[in-house]
Design a protein that fits this description.
By secondary structure, the protein is an alpha/beta fold. It folds into 3 domains: 96 residues, D-Maltodextrin-Binding Protein, domain 2 (3-Layer(aba) Sandwich); 79 residues, Periplasmic binding protein-like II (D-Maltodextrin-Binding Protein, domain 2, 3-Layer(aba) Sandwich); 116 residues, Alpha-Beta Plaits, CATH 3.30.70.260. Helix content is 34%, strand content 30%. It is built from 11 helices and 15 strands. The strands form 3 sheets. Strands 1, 2, 3, 4, 5 and 11 form a 6-stranded mixed β-sheet that branches. A hairpin with a 7-residue loop joins strand 13 and strand 14. It is elongated and about 90 Å long. 38% of the residues are buried.
Length: 310
C-alpha cells in the first residue's frame, strides 16, 4: 500500500505501539499522531486526520486486548490492513535517586501490570498498582510526580524520553512476551499468498450446536482457524458473538465461499479484514506460495491451450 502521510497511534511517544510502527519501514516515514486511547486512534482515521492507525490487539501472556476487539466489532467499519508482531520487554523505572525498596506505587497500563503480576507480588508485595492509559503515559506521570516511592512499568524508550532510570529490567512473568498490533484503514489489501482473515459471527439463534455449525463451514473447506474467541454482544447476559481468525484471504475462493455460506445459513457476519500475516516465517511462506501459484497457473494455461475448437 502507499506510504501514509500520517499514522495515528496509542501515545504518548514511547509506547510499544510506537515501537511497533517504527519496525515497518513505510510507516516509520509517516508523520506520527499520538492520541490517548484506542477509540481515539480509530476516530482520528475516521475523521481523516490520519490515513492509518495502529493499536495493540493481543498479547502472548494476557491474550486479547478486549477494548480493541470491542471497538472493531461494534464501533467502526475500518478494516485491518496488516498485523505487526513485536517482542515486548517491560521495565520498572523511576526518577533518579529512587531505589527499588522505596517503591510504594506502580503506574502502568492494566494489561502490562497483568503481565508482571507474579514479579510484582514477589518483589513489591506492598505496592499499589495504579492504572494508566499507556506505558508511556505512566512514565510521563512518574516523571512529573512530586511524591516519592512511585515507579512506572514502561519501555526503555519511554524511560529515556522522560528522564527515568531502570530499576529492574524484564519484569514480565514469562520470557517469551510478544504483542500483536493491527494497522487499521480503509479497503482490503491485495492477497500476498500468506494472509489471514478476521470476522465476527453473531449467532442468529442460540441453540445447541449453533457454534459447531459455524465451525463446520470452515472445516468442510479445510480452512484452518488460528483464533476463536467469544465476546459479549452487549445485549444481554450470556449472549455472545465469536471472533474468528482463519488462514487465507477473502480473494481466495475457499475463504469467500466459507463466508458466503456462513452469512447465508448460520450467522450474521462482520468482516474485519484480510491482511498479510506477520512473523519471521511469513516472508518465506509468501514467496513459496507465489512460486507455487505461478507454476500451477502455467500448468493450467498449458492444459487449456490444448482444448480443441468446436
Amino acid at each position: 500500500m502507499p506510504a501514509p502521510a500520517t499514522i495515528a497511534f496509542l501515545g504518548p511517544a514511547g509506547t510499544f505501539t510506537e515501537e511497533a510502527l517504527l519496525t515497518q519501514p513505510d510507516l516509520a516515514t509517516a508523520r506520527r499522531l499520538a492520541v490517548p486511547s484506542v477509540p481515539d486512534v480509530v476516530a482520528a482515521v475516521e475523521r481523516g486526520e490520519a490515513e492509518l492507525g495502529i493499536v495493540p490487539i493481543e498479547n502472548s501472556i494476557e491474550g486479547s486486548v478486549a477494548l480493541t476487539l470491542d471497538v472493531l466489532t461494534f464501533e467502526t467499519d475500518l478494516l485491518i490492513q496488516r498485523e505487526v508482531d513485536l517482542p515486548v520487554s517491560l521495565n520498572l523505572c523511576a526518577r533518579p535517586g529512587v531505589g527499588l525498596g522505596e517503591v510504594r506505587r506502580v503506574v502502568t497500563i492494566p494489561i502490562a501490570a497483568a503481565q508482571c503480576r507474579t514479579w510484582l507480588a514477589r518483589k513489591l508485595p506492598g505496592a499499589t498498582v495504579v492504572a494508566s492509559p499507556s506505558t508511556s503515559d505512566a512514565a510521563r506521570t512518574v516523571a512529573r510526580s512530586r511524591t516519592g516511592g512511585v515507579a512506572a512499568i514502561c519501555t526503555r524508550r519511554a524511560a529515556e524520553r522522560y528522564g527515568l532510570e531502570v530499576l529492574a529490567a524484564d519484569v514480565e512473568d514469562h520470557p517469551e512476551n510478544r504483542t500483536r498490533f493491527v494497522v487499521l484503514g480503509r479497503g482490503i489489501p491485495a492477497p500476498t499468498g500468506h494472509d489471514k482473515t478476521s470476522v465476527v459471527c453473531f449467532q442468529r439463534h442460540d441453540r445447541p450446536g449453533s457454534l459447531l455449525a459455524i465451525l463446520q463451514e470452515f472445516a468442510a473447506r479445510s480452512v484452518n482457524l488460528t483464533k476463536l474467541e467469544s465476546r459479549p454482544t452487549k445485549r444481554s447476559l450470556g449472549d455472545y458473538c465469536f471472533v474468528i481468525d482463519c488462514e487465507g484471504h477473502i480473494g481466495d475462493e475457499l475463504v469467500a465461499d466459507c463466508l458466503r455460506a456462513l452469512a447465508a445459513k448460520q450467522a450474521r457476519v462482520k468482516f474485519l479484514g484480510s491482511y498479510p500475516v506477520a512473523g519471521e516465517e511469513a516472508h518465506h511462506r509468501r514467496r513459496a506460495a507465489t512460486r507455487a501459484w505461478r507454476e500451477a497457473t502455467r500448468w493450467v494455461q498449458e492444459l487449456r491451450a490444448q482444448v480443441r475448437d468446436r
